[in-house]
TrEMBL record, chain A:
Cellular compartments per GO CC: lysosome; nuclear pore outer ring; Seh1-associated complex
Superkingdom of this protein's organism: Eukaryota
Keyword Coiled coil listed: no
Organism: Spodoptera frugiperda (Fall armyworm)
Official protein name in the record: Nucleoporin SEH1
Gene: LOC118266048
Subcellular location: Lysosome; Nucleus envelope
A biological-process GO annotation: protein transport
UniProtKB/TrEMBL annotation, chain B:
Family: Belongs to the nucleoporin Nup85 family.
Stored InterPro entries: Nucleoporin_Nup85 (IPR011502)
UniProt cross-references to Pfam families, sorted A to Z: Nucleopor_Nup85
Gene Ontology biological process: mRNA export from nucleus; positive regulation of DNA-templated transcription; protein import into nucleus
Source organism (scientific name): Spodoptera frugiperda (Fall armyworm)
Protein name listed in UniProt: Nuclear pore complex protein Nup85
TrEMBL record, chain C:
Name of this protein: Nucleoporin Nup43
Gene Ontology, cellular component aspect: nuclear pore outer ring
Localization annotation: Nucleus
Superkingdom field: Eukaryota
Organism: Spodoptera frugiperda
InterPro entries assigned: WD40/YVTN_repeat-like_dom_sf, WD40_repeat_dom_sf, WD40_rpt
Keywords on record: Nucleus, Repeat, WD repeat
Presence of the UniProt keyword Repeat in the record: yes
Length: 378, 651, 346
């Protein structure tokens, strides 16, 4: 009887990005059919799936006057729209213009027009994200000087017009943000999580005060929008995260009563945020406790700073990447425990030099590392 | 992804569920990396830096690496298995629903057999393909065959032990059948020898192995027939063994005797055999001696033949038959331990699964079958059927029953996996839908993101979404279709999909686009649609306005000027016209004002005048003056006519 | 003999299935077209018994013709030639060898991007054929009349509909009827150049698509249309106004309809809800005089009075296509299977 467990489980495909500098972000569109990349070379590129597993470059343009940090897609209900943010202190909204007799169209190139340039920030804009579509066409940016800005396009047909709805100062450098994707507006008010990469000095810690919350050394803040006061307020600060944060991401809600937030800091963390019922929460001095937060997982396997955390579509797998030049996949088991299910590494196998890169678009099978301890049985 | 198993501490602790490490090709990432998820199981790894200060980089660090899971079930042959088993799975869910009110075990058994026949057909297809294939392709197919042989074997045993209705729970006949079916060792030789029916068959090199094999498989009659073909078959020694085989008591629930009574006659028969053996009459025939020892359930005899078989399953049936034929189906653990212990070789994965099954440790069985690389097909379907049969109980460390959670998690994962496939998505959806509420929430996320390249696909997605009452998905697909038509400037398609999605915002957007198109090109798009649309026109004010405006065009074209004029006035006075459309609306009055017969009453004319003054900014001076003049002239002639009283029924 | 149903899994969702007519012997071969897969194709199959002595026949693939996009319609232009519409906007005429069906299909004509949104792709959603002529429709709302003999576009009705067209049927050589995504039906004189329909009416008030249209084999003025809602509508085109009779039939969209070629009273329908029904339509075609002396037709209000039979237990997935030849019916479904139903009484 042969071996029942397979050794080849993954296939890989290399794409030459052809950016002239470091790539900072890769974002897929709603359908996973288009991919946008941005880089320190100040360019943004859009790649389209050719339907046969390959990717074709369909647009490439100089988008900013500085490194482009992040790129993100709007919901397709609003058309083909992306937003970028940059070291040049701006964020920009781009729209693809439908098939025209433009010069590049024969070559399969498409035109993206800058519809709006958001210039309110005085420092580098570190992250940009479109809001959940049921809130309308919303955009949030954050900047190195710690200001969160929420913009709205009142007329979705007119992407040139964005009004700055809210400006929320946080007093610490903000590196990343994530919208809570919960669709239930009744149960969950609009919610944002932001992460700070402020180094841990005593000064910084002391300065993190204000609002109505008490001093908190945490690096992740939760903001919620109140319909009644029409304001965004900081409703929590996750004291469990004390180290600078590089990335955060809410998992899809799937109708749960709680939210899961992945945090990339000195380790990979998964934090369960459970809203506490109004009646039980209201204190007498107005300082209410909104959430019960619990670190459900903290993984130090990267042995280094973690840069990125990213959920798959259904929130069942979390990918993380760190300074160890490895990507790890974490999966929730049926009893809600999380464990690592795969590691992707660059380490060359001794005595076996991997094939040189070829700019092809077919998938090739990947071999598992020749390490007997990784195989369950033989 | 099915690379994992659950993390509950396994009682055996045999397996180390370490994550697998994969080596990225190309050595392309020297520094930091980032990652981004695409659709389904695809994600991208890219080189990434957090440093603000630009550092010169080598362009070698400039590759994206797309990684995707390799899914065996997506190969064409296995897609048949996926589709066919989906039908059986859905029937099983119905049967389980029915089982809530009445016992439905017979139906479950029928469905379990159906699953096995699906596996059998799949194996036949794989063998047929493997016979034709070459190279890597052949190797792959052979490894699939190995996988599905094991699955068939385990499923069958599971069916015997947990699903089948066995009279008195006496498992032996079923166990023998299982051994014969899956480990048909020596069967061919036996058939050959019996077919030839020649005296002196012992010349065949496998003669004795075959005879012993038949005994071990419990085919006593075949063994006796073979013994008769021996050239010394008529000798006393042979007759003695034949007699012992013939007189062996066979236990049957319907035999009318109790286990106790049976045990007495069995013991008696064994004593007889023992005395024959100790009388040393068989000393000249060591093979016959071996057979006698085997039928007496002698451990060392079994041990001595163990090496002739590839696995201990081959001798399991014989061992039970000759040591404890009255065993009930949940009393096989000891027999399994005895047989497995006869030879100290490395354990195979199948060994572990069969052992766990015979010991009744279903938790461990499921844990083990999750390691099979069939993308969870087997674990999902087997767990589901055992769950519905009420045979599966799994406790967590707090002794809470988590069986349904285990079942759900497997189905959810399998369903999501299939939903990634271009064609199998509808199969995946039916799995997710059978697992509410989370299944439907997941289905919602995936379904909404299904790439839609044709309207036929959109309509199919909407039909499926409606089937499972995922109205939000249906509406979202419509709105996205609307947006796509809008950005391409196709007003008809945009209006149609906005109305189909009953979306107020989208229909208002589409209507604005149509009106804007008219102001620029003087052609009103989608008139066929607007003139036949029903209550959907009420979705938004703009759409309603557009519809009425279109009707105004129709009336004007058919030269029903009076009606056209009335409609136009009502559009002007209703004030739902968008700002940019006032110019058009006001100028549309001009030809009607200039018509031979006055069509606006004086009141109408006043209304238009009022609007013109209120909205003077929408018209440039020259046009406004022209309109004022026409209005004044019309006022003059209508006032005259109305004053005469010749004006017939104004409204 | 009772109905015999036999399913075969083919690893492709089948969008269209068609018997290949034979002259003197029982039909054995058929076409399938697939959809919604990474690689779609048109296949030729034959029915054969793997073992001589066995009665059971299984489909065996004879040839495969790969196409881009989904196969949206297959209709015969001649005995051995089919017109195929594809979701990439192409229309092809393919020929199967009369003598050796195993021989690969030969391409006779190929209209690339016949339906299009300029540079962007647009689905050719269906076509109909009549005496060698082909009428095609697309999501672009255009109608094209092609000659299947000369391979040329004879006439185009640009913007026949502002929405996408989903079904088409030749009423006569010079007249076609189209149905759009909203159930808006239009009749076109293909000789006319004014791009205006000669008549237009709605399938139902629900604004759902007209998924298929056929006419009665012996009374071509009787038109039947299937709706996305599962309803079936009948018109008598001799009437000036178009009184329609609408039956709520299937629980989801009607995917294909066919009158039995040998018995015009038998109608077969299949649906997205996985049902395959036979209808006794005898009553429908018996016209009677109404109270005002006008020719009335049988209202289809009650489908029970129509004698509807379900031929197979409903599948869990959509049945997309059916084709009947004497006592045998072929079905293609979204569960990646084809079904052969034998001993059908007609």
């Amino acid at each position: 009887m042969g071996e029942l467990t397979a050794t080849n489980l993954f296939e890989s495909q290399t794409i030459l990005a052809d950016h002239k500098d470091l790539i900072h972000d890769v974002a897929y569109d709603f359908y996973g059919e288009r991919m946008a990349t941005c880089s320190s070379d100040q360019y943004v590129k859009v790649w389209d799936s050719d339907g046969n597993g390959g990717w074709r470059l369909t647009a490439s343009w100089k988008a900013h006057h500085g490194s482009v940090w992040k790129v993100t897609w709007a919901h397709p209900e609003f058309g083909q729209v992306i937003a970028t943010c940059s070291f040049d202190r701006t964020a920009a909204i781009w729209e693809e213009v439908g098939d025209t007799a433009a010069s590049g169209s024969e070559k399969g190139l498409r035109t993206w027009l800058k519809r709006s340039n958001l210039v309110d920030s005085r420092t580098s804009v570190t992250d940009v994200k479109f809001g959940p579509k049921h809130l309308g066409l919303l955009l949030v940016t954050c900047s190195a000087d710690g200001i969160i800005r929420i913009y709205e396009a009142p007329d979705v047909m007119n992407l040139a017009q964005w009004t700055l709805q809210h400006e929320i100062p946080t007093k610490v450098s903000i590196s990343c943000l994530s919208w809570n994707p919960s669709l239930s507006r009744v149960v969950h008010p609009p919610m944002l999580a932001v992460g700070s990469d402020e180094p841990n000095t005593t000064n910084a810690a002391a300065s993190v005060q204000g609002d109505k919350t008490t001093a908190c050394n945490g690096k992740v803040f939760i903001y919620e929008y109140s319909e009644s006061s029409r304001r965004w307020t900081r409703t929590d600060c996750l004291s469990s995260v004390q180290e600078p944060v590089n990335d955060i991401a809410f998992a899809p809600n799937l109708g749960r009563s709680f939210h899961l937030l992945a945090v990339a800091t000195k380790d990979v963390r998964i934090i369960k945020i459970e809203p506490i019922a109004e009646s039980a929460a209201s204190g007498n001095n107005g300082a209410t406790v909104r959430f019960k937060c619990e670190v459900v997982a903290a993984f130090e396997e990267h042995y280094s700073c973690v840069w990125r955390v990213c959920w798959n579509l259904t929130g069942t797998l979390l990918a993380s990447s760190g300074d160890d030049c490895a990507v790890r996949l974490w999966k929730m088991q049926y009893l809600n425990q999380w464990k690592c299910v795969a590691v992707f590494k660059n380490e060359p196998v001794p005595g076996d030099s991997p094939p040189q890169s070829r700019p092809h678009t077919t998938y090739i099978r990947m071999a598992t590392m020749a390490n007997p301890t990784h195989m369950p049985f033989h | 992804m099915n690379t994992s198993s659950f993390a509950v501490d396994s009682s055996r602790g045999k397996t180390v569920d370490a994550a697998k490490t994969f080596v990225l090709p190309d050595k392309c990432f020297q520094k930091h990396v980032g990652c981004a998820w695409g659709r389904g199981n695809k994600f991208t790894i890219y080189p990434r830096s957090q440093t603000v200060n630009k550092t010169p980089t080598d362009t070698a660090d400039n590759k994206l690496l797309n990684i995707k899971q390799d899914i065996l079930l997506f190969t064409p042959i296995l897609r048949k298995l996926v589709n066919e088993s989906n039908g059986t799975y859905l029937s099983l869910q119905k049967a389980a629903e029915a089982a809530k009110v009445s016992d439905n075990q017979v139906e479950f058994l029928k469905l379990s057999r159906q699953f096995r026949s699906i596996i059998r057909v799949c194996l036949e297809n794989l063998q047929e393909a493997a016979a034709k294939a070459e190279g890597i392709e052949k190797n792959n197919l052979l490894s699939y065959i190995t996988i599905f042989y094991s699955i068939e074997c385990i499923w069958h045993l599971c069916e015997i032990l947990y699903i089948d209705n066995i009279p008195g729970d006496i498992v032996l006949p079923y166990l023998l059948e299982w051994v014969r079916f899956h480990f048909p060792c020596h069967e061919q030789t036996a058939a050959q020898l019996l077919g030839a029916c020649e005296r002196g068959s012992e010349d065949h090199e496998d003669y004795w192995d075959t005879v012993v094999g038949m005994v071990v498989q419990g085919r006593v009659d075949v063994a006796r027939a073979l013994l008769k073909l021996h050239s010394a078959g008529e000798s006393n020694e042979f007759k003695l063994v034949d007699n012992s085989l013939r007189s062996m008591p066979v236990y049957s629930v319907y035999g009318g005797i109790s286990t106790g009574e049976f045990t007495i006659s069995w013991k008696h028969w064994q004593a007889e055999c023992r005395s024959k053996l100790s009388s040393r009459v068989l000393a000249s025939q060591p093979k016959l001696e071996l057979i006698m020892k085997i039928i007496m359930g002698d451990y060392s005899a079994f041990e001595s033949i163990r090496s002739k078989y590839s696995s201990w399953f081959d001798i399991l049936g014989g061992w039970v038959m000759f040591t404890a034929p009255w065993s009930r189906r949940h009393e096989l653990g000891a027999a399994a331990a005895a047989c497995a212990g006869m030879q100290a070789t490395g354990r195979s994965h199948l060994d572990d699964m069969v052992r766990a099954l015979l010991e009744g440790d279903l938790h461990q069985v499921i844990h083990e079958i999750q390691q099979i690389s069939d993308n969870g097909w087997f674990a999902t379907h087997l767990t589901d059927i055992l769950f519905h049969c009420g045979k599966l109980t799994i406790m967590d460390k707090h002794q809470t029953n988590v069986t349904s959670r285990l079942r759900d998690s497997l189905i959810l994962e399998y369903g999501c996996l299939l939903m990634e496939h271009k064609s199998l998505w509808s199969v995946g959806l039916s799995y997710l839908a059978s697992c509410p509420p989370e299944g439907l929430r997941r289905a919602e996320l995936i379904l909404e993101r299904m790439p839609v390249d044709t309207e036929a696909k959109a309509m199919k997605i909407i039909a499926e979404a409606k089937k499972y009452e995922l109205i939000g998905v249906a509406q979202s697909v419509c709105r996205c279709m609307c947006a796509r038509h809008l950005s391409a400037g196709r007003a008809g398609g945009a209006l149609c999909w906005a109305m189909r999605g009953r979306s107020s915002a989208a229909s208002s957007r589409a209507a604005h686009a149509a009106l804007a198109h008219y102001t620029q090109h003087a052609v009103l798009p989608a008139q066929d649609l607007l003139l036949t649309a029903g209550s959907a026109m009420l979705l938004s004010d703009t759409l309603l306005f557009l519809g009425k405006y279109c009707d105004f065009h129709r009336l004007y074209k058919t030269r029903e000027f009076k009606k056209a004029a009335q409609l136009l006035v009502s559009l002007i006075t209703s004030k739902i016209a968008p700002e940019y459309f006032w110019e058009t609306l006001l100028l549309d009055t001009l030809p009607l004002l200039e018509s031979d017969e006055p069509v606006f009453t004086s009141n109408d004319t006043y209304e238009i005048m009022l609007c013109l003054e209120l909205r003077s900014s929408s018209l440039d001076g020259e046009k406004a003056d022209l309109l004022r003049l026409a209005l004044a002239r019309n006022l003059a002639r209508t006032a005259l006519a109305e004053g005469d009283g010749t004006e017939e029924g104004a409204q | 003999m009772p109905l015999e149903v036999q399913g075969t899994f083919v690893s492709q969702k089948i969008s269209k299935i068609r018997w290949i007519a034979e002259d003197y012997v029982e039909t054995k071969c058929f076409f399938t077209g697939s959809w919604d897969d990474d690689q779609n194709s048109i296949k030729v199959w034959t029915l054969e018994s793997p073992h001589e002595e066995e009665e059971v026949e299984y489909p065996r693939q004879l040839s495969e013709y790969l196409v881009d996009g989904d196969v949206t319609q297959i209709k015969f232009t001649e005995k051995n030639k089919i017109a195929v519409s594809l979701s990439n906007g192409d229309v092809r005429v393919l020929e199967v060898s009369l003598y050796d069906k195993q021989f690969p299909l030969k391409e006779v004509f190929h209209w690339k991007k016949l339906h299009n949104y300029g540079a962007e792709q647009c689905s050719c959603t269906s076509l109909d054929t009549l005496e060698g002529d082909i009428a095609t429709i697309g999501e672009d709302g255009n109608v094209n009349i092609l000659s299947g003999r000369r391979g040329e576009v004879m006439h185009t009705i640009k913007g026949a509909d502002s929405c996408s067209l989903h079904s088409i049927c030749f009423i006569k050589h010079t007249e076609v009827i189209t149905g759009n995504v909203r159930g808006h039906m239009k009749i076109w004189d293909v000789r006319s150049t004014n791009n205006k329909p000669s008549a237009a009416f709605l399938l139902a008030g629900d604004e759902l698509a007209a998924t298929c249209i056929i006419h009665h084999p012996t009374q071509p003025h009787i038109i039947l249309a299937g709706s996305e809602s599962g309803a079936l509508a009948v018109w008598d085109l001799r009437m000036n106004s178009f009184p329609t009779s609408l039956v709520n039939a299937h629980s989801a969209g009607v995917s294909e309809m066919q009158f039995h070629p040998e018995n015009p009273h038998k109608l077969l329908t299949c649906s997205v809800s996985g049902e395959l029904w036979e209808w006794n339509m005898e009553a429908m075609t018996k016209s009677s005089k109404g109270p005002d002396g006008q020719v009335m037709w049988m209202p289809l209000q009650d489908k029970k009075s129509m004698m509807v039979n379900s031929l197979i237990p409903a599948l869990h997935k959509s049945i997309n296509s059916l084709h009947c030849d004497k006592g045998r019916i072929l079905c293609g479904a979204d569960n990646e299977a084809i079904y052969l139903i034998k001993n059908f009484k007609y």
